[in-house]
Structures are given as C-alpha cells and as structure tokens.
Amino acid sequence: RQMCIRDSYGGFQNSFSYKGLQLDFLLTFVKQIARNSDFGNINTLPGAFYLGTGNQITSVSKRWQKPGDIVRIQRYTTGTSLNQSLLDVYGSDAAWSEASYMRLKNASISWKLPKKWFDYISLRECTLFIQGQNLFTISKFNQLDPETKSSTSLPILRVITMGVKVIL
Q1: DSSP per-residue codes, 11-35
Q2: What count of other Cβ atoms lies within 10 Å of the Cβ of residue 30?
Q3: What is the pLDDT of residues 132-150, one digit of tens each?
C-alpha cells in the first residue's frame, strides 16, 4: 500500500558570515500527494471503529447531517453499507490530498566574540550560538505533519539549542 507519491524534492542550503557573525540554514521542499486523514487511513475511517484506534479526527463533524448539506463525508449509519461505502472511498482519489511542504530544517546563528575582549584572560576563542531544527513548516496538508504523513503520531520535534564554545 503506497502512502505517498512524490513529484519532486530538494533543498537550499547557504551560509553567510560578516565580522564574526555567521548564519547557516537548510530549507527543504517536497512536492507530493499523500493519503489524507479524511479517507486515506483504513484504520481511522470516519465513523468506523477498529481496535487500537483512539479518537476520531475533527473532519467527522463535517459529515452530512440534513437535506441540502453539500459535504465530502456521507451520512453515518449503523448498517453495513457504510463500511462498504467507506472502503470504496478509500480506494478512490478522495483518499488523496496535496501534501507538499517547505520546511526550515536547520538554522544556526553564531557570534565569535572579538579577541580583544578576552586578551587579558587565557582564552583563545569564544563563540555564542543558537541552533534550531524543524523551526517551521509551510503546508496545506490537513494532518499533523506532511513529512511523516500520519494522523496518529506526533510530528517531528522542534529543537532549539543555545550554547557557548570556549577554546582555552
């Protein structure tokens, strides 16, 4: 079972420095379609119950409820026809959504302190820095993370690290 169809992917990495200040970053992009949370996961089909699944996704509240409603999700019933209808939708293009994204994967900024600031103490070099991973993502994907493409697991963590590098 294929969960994703990629058209293209890539990235842009660069580094800038000026008078002891340095900026580095990596920006990645992926153009893809993936199974969506509305109909794309057989274990979390709206209105269905499977062992091991938790809460329903919020899109189930956008189901058909009264005559005149024009929505993507049909009326829920207790009959077996619903399960067959959901399985039919699972195999159709309604189960796929645009999952392209652009993500600032890594970024860091550092400042090498001027040597004259610590000439009177026995330091050769001192650098202050802050680094970040997975700082932001731009996407129209309707699940937690377009990279993992999961409606049941957490997205990749955002990590920010600060520090001082000292060379004696």
Answers
A1: EEEEEEEETTEEEEEEEEEEEEEEE
A2: 20
A3: 999 999 998 877 788 888 7
